[in-house]
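Hi team, as promised in this morning's meeting, here are the two structures we talked about. I've kept the exact order from the run log so nobody has to guess. The first one is mostly here for context; it's the second one we should focus on when we meet again. Sequence first, then the predicted structure tokens.
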Amino acid sequence: MRTTVGIIGAGPAGLLLARLLHNAGIDAVVLESRDRSYVERRQRAGILEQGTADVLRAAGAGERMDREGLRHDGIELRFDRRRHRVDFPGLTGGRSVTVYAQTEVCKDLIALQLRGGGPLLFEAEALAVEDAGTDAPRIRFRHQGREDVLECAYVVGCDGFWGVARKAIPAGLARVFERTYPFGWLGVLADVPPSHDELVYARHDRGFALLSMRSPSVSRLYLQVPDGTDAGTWGDEEIWDELERRFETDDDWRLERGPITQKSVTPMRSYVHEPMRHGRLFLAGDAAHIVPPTGAKGLNLAVGDVVTFARALTHRQETGSPELLDAYSATCLRRVWQAERFSYDMTTLLHTAPGATAFEGRLQLARLERIASSRAAETDLAEAYTGFPFG
């Protein structure tokens, strides 16, 4: 097989890149190790920045998002039994975010690709990226019980942290920056309408809590728990009781309870691999960087990466200049590190670290008070949350 761009991974990044390239008249092949059903059920992030939603619309994948997604114009911060709303449009000149699950983004993009895009091969396991440093990289993969080779002009690894793409970058060229947090998130899905119409981020001495949603009838809620926690050790009523404690306020707000249908624990880590490019191999999304979920940046960073690559390759095709492709890593990393900074700030602002002192707790409250009382501090949060510019 031969194509211009070989894309490893049919998550939202790989699928969106295939759509952007198709719209630009550039052929691509997508290889996905899992089957279609798995990809369309894989639960991940659900907050789309303004820029991400705009890109999906421009790519022709925004119709159902606009019909079923939930536009959010702010978030609520809770601390010391108080509530403070951050007004996104008022602070950013009209920007907002959209609650629309990654599973739904993938469904929309898969339907578009199968209806009118290039080849999308499910259960096609990428085994290795070969000759990445040359002008003719290859992806060796297994599909339908036999090995094959996809010859490419470019390879984009959208295959996550455990994929093969990053392994093709020589170790001597790589620098890795990472931090592992001593806590995780116990996340639950519940068949109950959300108890608030926007996300609620709560800082509490017992630990962080987040009230989110998947739809007007399904709530998504999170509790900070120690690293290594088994979700099965938490009973349903115990979860609801703890959520109530951490969301408590001095007014008459109440948390609505309902049947919990899913429990899982998400570890918390920050990770950046530099560079994000080697020769004709380009990394995107979790293959190059991971953020703790507190800032809602993971999916949006991946979108920024593939938008940057698609623009750069289109520029090369139209002008013959490799300038933007050569700048890919540096361009992406500027945005990546701002997202890492914001996610770290939100995580340390709202979580109670093991062994934290009373002094550190007071500093968290002082930082929250600053956001609640300073338009400049509040604007900084709103601008970062609604999204950094692409490129």
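And here is the second protein, the one for discussion:
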Amino acid sequence: MPAQAATTLPAADFRLKATGYSGLIDDLDAALPDVGVPTVVRDGNRAATTCSPAAANRVAAFCWNSGDDDVAYWVPQGITTTADAYGEATYEGATAILVSWYDNGADGVDRGVRVSFVDYSTPSAPTYRHVLLVEPYANSAGQASFRAVNLHAGGMFWYGHHLYVAATGTGFRVFDLRHLWQTSTTNGSAIGRQADGSHQAYGYKYVLPQAFAYNQSTTGGRAAIRFSFASLDRTSTPDSVVVGEYANPGAGSRLFRFPIDHTDRMLAESADGYARATEAYDVSVQSMQGATAINGKYYLSTSDGSGNAGDLATFTPGGAVTTRHDVLPVGPENFSYWPAKGQLWSLTEYAGDRSVFAVRASAY
């Protein structure tokens, strides 16, 4: 049904600036085996299951094993694929889907964020392994170590060797996929460099380090962006990033587009070092959980809570926001588009009813 048209905002008032690259990565490279993306993707220790989530125009799907479907303290949020990473839809020969999960601390421990590396080379039988995201730092002895990354991780996208993860209040944390380290798994309750010289990661075999970040600021008195989710748009010229805000009923929600440079895999900067938005809209869509754009058209996922099917809305700048009700499963989250397949991928978050699925984008 039609709704009000999106309101255009002055996009250049919203900006991001990169921090420096972490020099501690070199020190940790020397201390830990660096295994690479294909090794991790092909080292799956869990098997996905077949399932049929209630999504209209569904063309693909899988579900997690029972432990990951039911776990209360890990919550899935963001999704990206090797089709984001490179146009040929593979990364060093691997075909993969990545899903972010945040630890809500329900079991008394906050492990930060993990990312599922799903081997999707055989869509009928995906396998996967969780990798812990970490932030390098110098410990009290001046030694290179790492700690958990405490984020909601509501959205992410893969671009070249960079994995961009949304940081709700600040912008992006950026992780370098050229550095995937194998750690010791002898202590499931420890993280970072230990007194015995080992490097632990709460029992996770692999960790992926943060290399730098993008921090936001605004001009013109604009309210800061809430980086609730993010996705890559490879159908724009140049490639670009779509960022959006979750908002409770009665509050405004905004969408932004930032250009990204394929030559260095960084957000495209002006001469002053800032990456500025090129599009900004107030769409006033409540409970928006994810968004992407395909050939200039925006696709939005919205949640109606734990007991109702999710909705999918679309709009083209200058036009009205149109919502298709109850076409997504309960609890839909972020979007990621796979151009060669014409597939719009998403996932659901509620324990006991979690799935990863794709719908035919052209149906909307």
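Starting points for discussion:
The helical segments are 24-31, 37-41, 66-70, 82-85.
The longest strand covers residues 206-218.
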